[in-house]
Amino acid sequence: GKYSNKKDEL
Amino acid sequence: MNIFRLIGDLSHLLAIIILLRKIWKSRSCAGISGKSQLLFAIVYTSRYLDLLTVYVSMYNTLMKLVFIAASYATCYLIYLKFKATYDHNHDTFRIEFLLVPAVILALLINHDFMALEILWTFSIYLESVAILPQLFMVSKTGEAESITSHYLFALGSYRGLYILNWIYRYAMEDHYDLIAIVAGVVQTVLYCDFFYLYITKVLRGKKLQLPA
């Protein structure tokens, strides 16, 4: 999902 | 991970190292806005709380820890260790004018009304404007040391490279996050005037000096 997806960015 | 994000992250890391090294070597934080550094410490703390809840990768975890630790170390050097050299007379930007709107905006415009998500959103909004006290300080004193200019250039480039990363991810992975993109564009635009001065003056060996 979008939540976990963007957390890979700093 | 793509090349734009990697270079962006490395540029971000380089900026942090340049600043810490400059303060440590000169034993002085003259010309550096403590308020901007305080805002960055708030940004990293509120954004990287997910260290406690999700594991992405070793790279991700390490970089987050370095950013948090370095931002606290910088604040420690400015406000405690080299406090006597802190130029607070020129660091007069009112940070509540950035903090309060960032909180309100995060509560109004977010992906999900959940504590961690709102803190993440708040950190994105705050980061986009966190450099303003530093830029305000440079404009107030009318100049910046070359090393401070290099720091600002590396820090400004990082979000600019992230924009390329977001374009790449949209094209290749069909992934995008409007909140990060809009805030990242605002953040990069704020540096444009500085980028212009950096390229036309600092890179030609001149000091960054604003016209009187």
From TrEMBL, chain B:
The organism's place on the tree of life at top rank: Eukaryota
Sorted UniProt keywords: Endoplasmic reticulum, ER-Golgi transport, Membrane, Protein transport, Receptor, Transmembrane, Transmembrane helix, Transport
Gene Ontology MF: a single term: ER retention sequence binding
Transmembrane segments: 62-80, 92-109, 115-138, 150-172, 178-199
BP GO terms, sorted: protein retention in ER lumen; protein transport; vesicle-mediated transport
Membrane topology according to the record: Multi-pass membrane protein
GO cellular component, one term: endoplasmic reticulum membrane
Primary location recorded for the protein, binned into one broad class: endoplasmic reticulum
Localization per record: Endoplasmic reticulum membrane
Family annotation (PANTHER family): ER LUMEN PROTEIN RETAINING RECEPTOR (PTHR10585)
Family as reported in the entry's similarity comment: Belongs to the ERD2 family.
Protein's recorded name: ER lumen protein-retaining receptor
Organism: Oryctes borbonicus
